[in-house]
Structure formats: C-alpha cells, structure tokens
C-alpha cells in the first residue's frame, strides 16, 4: 500500500533544510518534539510573540518574501525595544494550501533578516487554514537591564529613531487605490528592527517602546505605565523627504503622529544625557531625534510650531477593516 502523502511534512523538511545557522547554543533545532537551547549563564531570557494575519496586518497583495521579512522584523523590534540581544525564533505558519513555492519565497525574506542578526529558526508549527504567520523571538539581557515602559519621569527627554510616517503613507496610498510610492512601500513591507540602538540603550534610557500602533498611542503606553504625561513638538518629528513629496502638511502630520507600522524606537532619557544619545546615533549610524519631553500629568499632548495644541481624529493605527 502506498503511504499517504503528508504535504505538511514536505514543507517542514524544506524549512528545516533551509534554516541552517551557525549558532552553537542550539542544542537541538527543528526535527524533534521541541527545541533545546542553551541560555548563557547569568542572562535573563526575553520572549516576544506577534501574529500577522492576511488582510489585517499586511495588504493581501504583499509578496511572500516581504511577509516573511516583516513577520520576523516586528518580533525583533519588540526585542530591540527591551534592549535585548536576539538569538532564536520559532515560526507558526497557517497556510491555505501546501504551496512549496510560496514557502520558499517566504523563507527567503524571513531567513535574510534572521541571518542579518544571527537569529536561528529553531522550531514551529505548520497547519492548514487562512494565511496567518505567528513568530516568537527569544533573546536575552544582562539581569535587570531590560528596557521597560514604566521608567519615564517628568523632565525626561523623548527621542525617536529613524523617520516616522513612511509605512502609514504607503498604506494610505494603497487604500486610495492609486499608485504606491516604492520608497514608502519598502518601509511598510520591510521594516528595519533597531536592534543595535536597542542594545546600546539600557545604560541611557529610562523607558522604551517600539512604534507599531502610532507614535501618540505608543508613547501613551509609556506614559500610562510610568504615571506621567508628555509634550511632543510636531515639527520635531523626523520626516523623510518622500513623505513631503507625496502628502500635504496636514496629512503628513497625521501619518507621522498616528500612522503606525514604523517599528522605530521611542525612548526617554534624563535631560542630561543628550551627548550619550548623540554617541549612540554616531556609533549605530541611525538618526535619533529629540521630539519632546515628559511632564507631570497623564496626557500626551502634541503642539505645532506656534505652540497650539493639536489633536488627531484618532490616536493610533487601526487594523484593516476589509479583507483583501
Ligand atoms: P509535533 O507534532 O511533535 O508538534 P511537528 O510535526 O509539528 O511535530 O513538527 C516537527 C518539527 O518541525 C518540530 O521540531 C517543529 O518545531 C518543526 N516545525 C514544524 N513547523 C515548522 C515551521 N513552520 N517552522 C519551523 N519549524 C517547524
Ligand atoms: Mg506540531
């Protein structure tokens, strides 16, 4: 009798074959019931998990390689926001059909990013269902040094890496149904986790978060956890040239303050640490802008160049409401 074919196992064999890595701390990777990993002595394990659903977390026309990249990037961004050094990841794939070409293309983006940060894919799960990708990323910190949301104090400065609004700009163009600028689309599809900055921040930052739901919403989480408020200068938000080319000032402001999907780090430091932040920017080659300060209170308030308060219609990013 011919054995029944199990396409799930063919896919897992494919993944296993491609997920080679050089890490000595993976005692047992893909292929057994679970992975066995050697956590370095004297470190705390840091674990993050995020799911991307088709039509909710990425447009339905997103290339499989970009879905692969982004599903790992958003998790590495969470580790960066904790100040952690990434080491391992697991991958749960729900696929409408066992399509080896799709999996190969997906893995190309996923493993390109994994190799950039020396992250080993050590296990996962493969099931049939609507397209959904769930990744867990694991890393570590020196004990007690993880960057948290609850350490901001009045008088602290608020900083953000890179630029804001690019990814949300791509999404806005995509929703309008016209052309999407390729530079903006690249920021939506292939966010760059700020691992090096995150690793350098523990001695300097009092609180940190990665910007996934929009600056005002995410800074609001820091303020709520820390029991403080914040004042943000809209004109200080780092704006890429392409956003100026594609959107008027009002739209730009909304995208930058509330858009989301940026995966930049927003952090706070004591007011005396400007030079230390400048040194991290120089060492990592990542621009870091001071965008405001922490104040007493509970509100996150944004001000324009004339000092007038500005309120968005909604503070943060909403997931897609339509299925693509
Ligand atoms: P079990 O039934 O014991 O959970 P599976 O057949 O689901 O085993 O998985 C077999 C091996 O393949 C395990 O080591 C698992 O971690 C790995 N694996 C399954 N799916 C994936 C995936 N999408 N990515 C990486 N590893 C996977
Ligand atoms: Mg399983």
Automatic annotation (TrEMBL):
Family: Belongs to the thiamine-monophosphate kinase family.
Top-tier EC class: transferase
Transmembrane regions listed in the UniProt entry: none
Record keywords, A-Z: ATP-binding, Kinase, Magnesium, Metal-binding, Nucleotide-binding, Thiamine biosynthesis, Transferase
Residue sites binding Mg(2+) 3 per the record: 33, 78, 210
EC number in record: 2.7.4.16
Reaction(s) the record says it catalyses: thiamine phosphate + ATP = thiamine diphosphate + ADP
InterPro entries named in the record: PurM-like_C_dom, PurM-like_C_sf, PurM-like_N, PurM-like_N_sf, ThiL-like
Binding-site residues for ATP, renumbered to this chain: 124-125, 149, 212
Misc note: Reaction mechanism of ThiL seems to utilize a direct, inline transfer of the gamma-phosphate of ATP to TMP rather than a phosphorylated enzyme intermediate.
Domain (PurM-like C-terminal): residue spans on this chain: 153-302
Protein name per Swiss-Prot or TrEMBL: Thiamine-monophosphate kinase
Residues holding Mg(2+) 5: 213
Domain PurM-like N-terminal span(s) in chain numbering: 31-141
Binding site for Mg(2+) 4: 33, 78
Binding site for substrate: 57, 261
Top-level taxon in the UniProt lineage: Bacteria
């Amino acid at each position: 009798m011919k054995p029944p074919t199990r396409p799930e196992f063919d896919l897992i064999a494919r993944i296993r074959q491609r997920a080679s890595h050089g890490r000595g701390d993976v005692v047992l990777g893909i292929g057994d019931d679970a992975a066995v990993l050697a956590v370095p002595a004297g470190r705390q394990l840091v674990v993050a998990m995020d799911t991307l659903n088709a039509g909710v977390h990425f447009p339905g026309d997103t290339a499989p390689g970009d879905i692969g990249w982004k599903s790992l990037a958003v998790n590495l961004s969470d580790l960066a926001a904790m100040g952690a050094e990434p080491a391992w990841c697991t991958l749960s794939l729900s696929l409408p059909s066992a399509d080896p070409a799709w999996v190969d293309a997906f893995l190309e983006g996923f493993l390109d990013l994994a190799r950039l940060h020396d992250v080993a894919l050590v296990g996962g799960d493969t099931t049939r269902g609507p397209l959904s990708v769930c990744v867990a990323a694991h890393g570590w910190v020196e004990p007690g040094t993880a960057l948290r949301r609850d350490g901001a104090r009045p008088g602290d400065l608020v900083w953000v890496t890179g630029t804001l609004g690019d990814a949300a700009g791509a999404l806005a163009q995509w929703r309008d149904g016209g052309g999407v600028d390729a530079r903006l689309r690249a920021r939506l599809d292939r966010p760059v986790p700020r691992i090096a900055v995150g690793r350098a921040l523990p001695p300097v930052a009092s609180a940190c978060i990665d910007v996934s739901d929009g600056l005002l919403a995410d800074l609001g989480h820091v303020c709520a956890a820390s029991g403080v408020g914040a004042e943000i200068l809209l004109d200080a938000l780092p704006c890429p040239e392409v956003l100026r080319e594609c959107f008027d000032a009002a739209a730009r402001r909304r995208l930058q303050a509330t858009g989301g999907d940026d995966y930049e780090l927003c952090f706070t430091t004591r007011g005396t640490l400007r030079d230390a932040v400048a040194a991290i920017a120089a060492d990592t080659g990542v621009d870091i802008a001071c965008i405001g300060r922490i104040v007493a209170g509970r509100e996150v308030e944004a001000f324009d160049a004339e000092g007038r308060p500005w309120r968005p219609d909604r503070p943060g990013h909403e997931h897609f409401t339509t299925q693509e």
